Amino acid sequence: xxxxxxxxxxxxxxxxxxxxxxxxxxxxxxxxxxxxxxxxxxxxxxxxxxxxxxxxxxxxxxxxxxxxxxxxxxxxxxxxxxxxxxxxxxxxxxxxxxxxxxxxxxxxxxxxxxxxxxxxxxxxxxxxxxxxxxxxxxxxxxxxxxxxxxxxxxxxxxxxxxxxxxxxxxxxxxxxxxxxxxxxxxxxxxxxxxxxxxxxxxxxxxxxxxxxxxxxxxxxxxxxxxxxxxxxxxxxxxxxxxxxxxxxxxxxxxxxxxxxxxxxxxxx
Length: 268
Known about the structure:
This protein is α/β, with parallel strands linked by helices. The chain folds into two domains: about 5-55, Helicase, Ruva Protein, domain 3; about 75-265, 3-Layer(aba) Sandwich (Rossmann fold), CATH 3.40.50. The protein is built from eleven helices and seven strands. It has helices at about 5-15, 25-35, 40-55, 65-75, 85-95, 95-100, 105-115, 155-165, 195-200, 205-210, 235-245, and strands spanning about 120-125, 140-150, 170-175, 185-190, 215-225, 250-260, 260-265. It has a seven-stranded mixed sheet with strand order 3-2-1-4-5-7-6. Helix 1 crosses helix 3. The protein is globular, with a radius of gyration of 19 Å.
């Protein structure tokens, strides 16, 4: 496979709206996989974009105005209970399909998933999207360590700035979970609606994620309906899939449904 061919396809893919900020390593890996299938140039570019869309682009149809959001953030309080701060977070979470669906039950969601852990001292949010804007609703200890990762560098930079604004320690970094999992031990980790997306990249990755994430408690969710709100038998499909993933594991698992998500709380 010629390097020049790979670079040409990558350049064409990244020129499309929404693809320029995706993790370069992920884009290159998908590009090499699609080139190996022997399609023509245009068909390969389309195929790469299709995979990347399924993985993350479908949830964020337009690039948010992050620069303007950061300016707004500068003038907001740091108190997680402040109404103005929470209004800012709610408004911005509307931009991402995953967090938008969770907004009607956001208080209930974090009470039922993290509420039994006391004040959480360390949290890992994998493939976080705009979910770190929900930090004000989470039962976190002041100054807790919060680790964020996602495939979009511009979105990651924004939510990491929000983490800092809220006074939490930790770090944010661009990551491709198929290639590498964060290995820092944490009290709790969030893997929200992520396994179905990553299965598009690597079949069977769910088991490796559950075993490899170094967390005492892991909150795993699946969508109960499609992005369009349709029920396509997804509850049973994903419930069966998760049951296979945890079969034989010595973990304590509690399952429930909150809003439009199947939720599993895994205590390792």
